[in-house]
Every structure is written in C-alpha cells, then in structure tokens.
Design a protein that fits this description.
Layout: H1 3-10, E1 22-26, E2 29-32, E3 37-40, H2 43-46, H3 55-67, H4 78-91, E4 95-99, H5 102-121, E5 127-131, H6 140-145, E6 162-165, H7 170-176, E7 181-186, E8 189-190, E9 196-197, H8 200-213, E10 216-220, H9 234-238, E11 244-247, E12 258-262, H10 283-295, H11 298-315, E13 321-327, E14 330-335, H12 340-349, E15 352-353, E16 355-357, E17 360-363, H13 371-386
Helix pairs in contact: 3-10, 4-10, 11-13
The structure holds pyridoxal-5'-phosphate.
Pyridoxal-5'-phosphate binds near residues 103, 106, 187, 191 and 223.
Length: about 375
C-alpha cells in the first residue's frame, strides 16, 4: 500500500504532514520505511517521555492488556486507583479524575471551576480569564479558552465566558476581574505560543489576586507537566500552588490520557453524576502511566535539569541563534537568520526531528535521551543554523 497517498485519500487533511513515514522507534531514535534513522527531539509533541517503546513501559502495558484491557468506570480497577494515588501524593493534590487528552482535561478543569463557583455564589459567576497567546486545546470550549484570534474562526458559536489578558501585566488582570470571574487559567510556559516562560513575580501576583477574590487558579500543565521542565510539575519552579492542575501529553508515556487534579477546598466539588468518561482511567493506559510515575524520581529529574542546562549552554550565543528560551527539556530556539519551519524541514533531511512554535524551533526531546545523543543531534541543528 502507498501509505502517503492512501492517507491523503482517507484521512482528513487537518495536518500538513511532513514527507516522512515512521515505522518503528527505540529510545530517542525512530526509523522510516527505508531504515533511515532519525533522532527525535519532539517526543511526539512531549508525549514519549521515556522515548520510543521503552522496554519496561511496553512490558507493563502488554501485561495489563493481557490481564484486563478495559471495563467501565462503574467498577473499581487497580491501575486507575494506583495512578490516582501516585499522582496526588506526588503533587499534593487532593483528588483527581481522568480524561483522555489535554483538551478534555482542560474542559474538565473549567467544569470544576464553574461548579465550585456555582455551588458557593450561585449563577452568573462563570467567566474564565486566560492569557493572550495561550493554547488550551481544540474543542469548541478550549478553542474559546485559547487566547489567540487565529483559533476563533469557522466554528461559531464558541462557548461563552472567556476573556483574555496580556500575560506579565498584573494591572491588566486586575482591571479585567469583576464579580463574574470564577477562574484564571495559565500555562507556566506557553508551549505552542513560542516556549515563553511566565515571570515568577507575575505568577505570584496572580496567585495572590486569586486568593483575595476566591478566584481559582487553573494550571494547564498539559505540556509542562510530568518532568518536562526538570521538576515533576512546572508549578514547583514557580513556588505556587494552583487550585486545579491539568495533565495529559507526557503522563501516559505514549498512550492517550489526561487528568484533572484539584487541591484542598475543591476536593468534593465534583460529586456523583457531575462528570464521566467511558475511557478515562483505562487500565492499560494507567499501567503505562504508572511506569512513567515510577521512573520519574528525584534522580531522574535532576538529570533532566542537567541535560536542559547542557542544551542551553551548547546553543546560547551560537551562530545563527538569536535567543534560547524555556526550562528543563522544553526548549525554544529563535533563529536570527533562518525561518524556523525551514530549519525543521532541513532537519528531517539530515536525520533530526524538531518542532516549531510560532517563530521558534521547539525541542521536546524524550526525557531519557543521553547527553551524547543530544550533543550529536544539536550539532546537526547548529550546522543548519550556521549555513
Ligand atoms: C497540547 C496541549 C493541549 C491540548 O492537548 P490535546 O491532547 O491535543 O487535546 C492543551 N494545552 C496545552 C498547554 C498543550 O500543550
């Protein structure tokens, strides 16, 4: 079968795919149908945190698939419960529910915030403030939550109750807050928006402002969470406790999962019949996620930070690079001459997979990549940028 032609015929063209068919992978490497090897600095967009087909992860998933593949959330299952306990203990969250993607987790977080506000203050207090240049997902509601006009097209009417403020500007947020606001939702590092980290003092001020008015702080850690920034959650880098944290991408190590974790006072907001998901907390997916949780101990995260520093040191000030942004192994590279998309395209020719984010090259390598593997792949990037 001609895979590329058949894809064009039968799969809706919502992606402008690169001319690359990936057939297998191991660690940080993947292979096309001709056996050409690529170093993958994308992790399937921050998903394969243990790399491709990690042996222990694959064993855990396979074992669970042979034992209990799926039942419904009408019954108890062990992997789901173990994962919930592990995630709550790791993050200090009180409780969580599972979803199947980042957008769905963010939808869930918005539901929790509106329910909390409704229970306590009655109707009308339902506005969620998000930041300009944010990205929160592709469903109708999370598109509305996304603070970029380019996403607000075609699919009208979008969900009501979202307003956007300039990030880093606490006065703008203060001015936007009135008695209809129930939550503020932020990414600590805007991923799709161009790997832009929030200022620490700004985030602290947002937290204080929210506390003052009993407005909930929702942290969208779909991309920044699960070790990506060198701490288990990016919020640890910022010394703030959100009221709600959402997870997805890296959590399953390569299988679809999302989670909405709530802290303290939100423990019992979502009672019986307030939410549901057929697949949420699926045993096979949770078995994979448990292996991820197991592996991401303090020593592992210290390595992530070390490798992040190594990347920054190697790239900062190099020829063809204007600036380097991000934290841990979530890295943005702004080229001074070339277009980021051209660099990514040339990277494929030379066997290195990278992402873009706006005008930047974005690197989200598997957290298990070695310094030597990074070194070799970055030499390719630097060569392209220096030409
Ligand atoms: C990827 C992403 C999402 C959407 O996740 P999906 O699994 O694609 O629905 C939401 N928020 C952030 C910050 C993301 O990076």
């Amino acid at each position: 079968m001609d895979i590329k032609a058949t894809d064009k015929e039968y799969v809706m063209g919502t992606y402008n795919r690169f001319d690359l068919l990936i057939v297998a992978g191991e660690g940080c490497y993947c292979y096309d149908e001709k056996g050409k090897r690529y170093t993958d600095l994308t992790s399937g967009i921050g998903v394969n945190c243990l790399g491709y087909c990690d042996a222990k992860w694959a064993d855990a998933v396979a074992k669970q698939a042979h034992t209990l593949n799926h039942t419904s959330n009408l019954y108890y299952t062990e992997p789901c419960v173990k994962l919930a306990k592990a995630l709550c203990e790791r993050t200090g969250a009180a409780k969580l529910f599972f979803a199947n993607s980042g957008a769905e987790a963010n939808e869930g977080a918005i539901k929790v915030a509106r329910k909390y506000s409704y229970d306590k203050y009655g109707s009308g207090r339902n506005t969620v403030i998000t930041l300009k240049n944010s990205f929160h997902g592709r469903t109708i509601t999370t598109l509305a939550a996304t603070g970029q006009d380019v996403f607000h097209n075609y699919f009208f009417p979008f969900t009501e109750g979202f307003r956007y403020v300039e990030s880093g500007n606490i006065k703008a947020l203060k001015d936007e807050i009135d008695d209809t606001v129930c939550a503020v939702m932020i990414e600590f590092i805007q991923g799709e928006g161009g790997v832009i980290a929030q200022d620490k003092d700004y985030v602290k001020a947002v937290r204080e402002l929210c506390d003052e008015k009993d407005i909930l702080l929702i942290a969208d850690e779909v991309q920044t969470g699960v070790g990506r920034t060198g701490t288990f959650l990016a919020s640890e880098n910022y010394d703030v406790k959100p009221d709600i944290t959402t997870f997805a991408k890296g959590l399953g190590g390569g299988l679809p999962i999302g989670a909405v974790a709530v802290y303290g006072k939100l423990r019992d907001v979502m009672g019986f019949s307030s939410h549901g998901s057929t697949f949420g907390g699926n045993p096979v997916v949770c078995a994979g996620a448990l292996e991820v949780m197991d592996r991401l101990d303090d020593a592992f995260l210290a390595e992530v930070r070390k490798k992040g520093d190594f990347v920054r040191k190697k790239l900062e000030g190099a020829k063809g690079i204007e600036s380097v942004s991000g934290l841990g192994l979530m890295i943005g590279v702004k080229p001074s001459e070339k277009k980021a998309s051209d660099v990514v395209r040339e990277g494929i020719n030379r066997g290195v997979l990278m992402l873009t984010a706006k005008d930047k090259i974005r690197l989200l390598p598997p957290l298990t990549i070695t310094e030597k593997q990074l070194d070799e792949a970055l030499d390719v990037l630097l060569a392209i940028l220096a030409e």
